[in-house]
Amino acid sequence: MVDPSAALAVALEEARTGAAEGGVPIGAALLAADGTVLGRGHNRRIQDGDPSSHGETDAFRRAGRQRSYRSTTMVTTLAPCWYCSGLIRQFGIGTVIVGESRTFQGGIDWLREIGVSVIDLDDRACADLLGRFIAEHPDVWGEDIGE
After folding, report:
1. How many Cα atoms within 13 Å fall on the side-chain side of residue 125?
2. Which of 42, 90, 102, 119 is most enclosed, with most CB atoms within 10 A?
3. Residue 98 CA: distances (Å) to CA of 21, 27, 61, 78, 79
4. 3-class SS of residue 73
């Protein structure tokens, strides 16, 4: 079973790595049912010049091919955007652990509606890390969320 706090610690470490690299501080990891980290990553849009390199997609790509994703858990420091919510839906990821959704709601209501278990931890450290970035780089944040 996946421990939400331990899972979030992995994603938060990734978010801090992204911040240290000068990128958008959003981290994620894909975990097996027993909590084993299959892949971890962070938003690399700035670093790689790739608009599709979100934290969730980076973690998903690093996890490599899995026979099935139904028993996996995606943990992310911020509610997944519509693009990443689509990835979760497309591959049938069964559970999403969200660090916080106050800053951005993304597609979590839709994910819940289609039967994905969404656990929102409302974590202050996640909100503070991203909040500082948004205050310092509002233009980059707007670009990141498609505004």
Report:
1. 14
2. 42
3. 22, 10, 19, 6, 6
4. strand
What is the pTM for the complete model shown?
A: 0.95
Average of per-residue pLDDT across 34-58: 96
Determine the Cα–Cα distance for residues 145 and 136; give it in Å rounded to an integer: 16
Q: What does the block give as tokens for 39?
A: 């892949």
Q: What backbone torsions phi and psi does residue 78 show, to the nearest 5 degrees?
A: -135, 145
Centre a 10 Å sphere on the Cβ of residue 7 and count the other Cβ atoms it contains.
Answer: 25
Residue 96 one-letter amino acid: V
What is the spatial distance between Cα 65 and Cα 43, in angstroms, rounded to a whole number?
A: 20
> For residue 28, what are the β-bridge partners?
41, 76
Furthest-apart CA pair in the chain: how many Å? 41
Q: Is 77 helix (H, G, I), strand (E, B) or coil?
A: coil
The DSSP code for 103 is: S
Tokens of 26: 């959003």
To the query of whether residue 56 is one of the catalytic residues in this protein, the response is yes
- What percentage of residues in the chain have a pLDDT greater than 70? 100
pLDDT in tens, 82-131: 999 999 999 999 999 999 999 999 999 999 999 999 999 999 999 999 99
